Structures are given as structure tokens and as C-alpha cells.
């Protein structure tokens, strides 16, 4: 029996064991396998480990998406979490590309994936409050929001959770240096049913370009 003689259900099961790129390359062999690749039920879970993966045409975004994870750990990506005033021109150029990729992608998620249940972002230093708030507004079924080392997150996200996160049960804002103790206290008081984790947040040095007289000392402290 040839692979293409199997029914759609069996083919979907086989495809579920393949990574994104293998699914795409396999789908190019015939129309039947292309239909399997384009079946939304194949794409309920998406994981990305580098910015370049977001620009590839080897996955499908649809209302079937339930869980999304974007976790970046490479040394290049870590540059994105450095404050802009400390970056070289070369570093700013890298960060600009990353910023466009991730923000455009999250904009698509909010518009095309209303049934999202879980979102995890780690090391995404250019994601701003706006895109997370947009997802909270347009993905009402969201139950878990995990943000780790996302430098631009502020108390505005916490405020949005109190307004739009009616189904949220888990919130992580770990190592997010612009989250304050006041914001954490407010969300814990207003959303008692939400488990809130904020490891090292509110205890880190927030973004604020220093005066010329102390920029060197502050920069050294940041790096340490």
C-alpha cells in the first residue's frame, strides 16, 4: 500500500509526528498530501525556537491553533533585551529585524487564531504591551499566558488581564524588568483566581536612560 492510499485521518496522524519543515516538503509531492498539510486540525500546536522560523512558509495559522510557544535563547536574540541606548548600530539593526518579525507574527495570531488557549513567550525582548493586550482582547479563551525575559512588558499588560483575561488561570511575568510591585499587587487583588508568577520581576532595574554623569556605572550594573 502506498502512502497516498491512506485516508485523511491516518495521514493526519502520520503528519503529526513530523516537524514543520518535513511536513511542508512532504506536502509538495502531491495534491493529496498538500491537502493534509493545509488541514487546520494538524496545526493546533506551534513551537518556534528562532526568529527566522517565523518567516518561513512551513506552518498554518488558523482558528484551530490552541497552543503557541516562542522561545528564543541564542546569544543574538539576547541582544534584544539590552536597552536601546546601550546597543551598537549593528545590534540595533539586528533588533529591528527581530522586532518586525515577532510583532507582525503576533498581529496575525490575534486576527486569525481566536481560540488560542496557551501563549508562551521567552526571550522576546521586542514584544510590546500593545500586541499582548491585542491577543487578550481577541483571544477570549486564553487560559495561560507565560512571559519570560520579555523586557518591554509593563504594568499595562497586568491591567489588561484584569479587564480582558476573564478565562485566564495562569500568568507568568518572570524576569520582566519593567513590571512593578504595584502592578503585581493590583492584579493579585483583582484576579484572585489567577495564579501569578513573577520571578525576579519588580526587583530588577527598569529601563530608563541615565544622565550622562552616571551612564557608565549604570551600564556596568546592568551587565552584572
Automatic annotation (TrEMBL):
A Pfam family that the UniProt record links to this protein: F-box-like
- Domain F-box positions: 1-46
Q: Name one GO biological process term.
A: SCF-dependent proteasomal ubiquitin-dependent protein catabolic process
Looking up SMART domains in the UniProt record yields:
FBOX, LRR_CC
Per the record, its GO cellular-component terms are: SCF ubiquitin ligase complex
Name of the featured protein: F-box and leucine-rich repeat protein 22
Gene for this chain? fbxl22
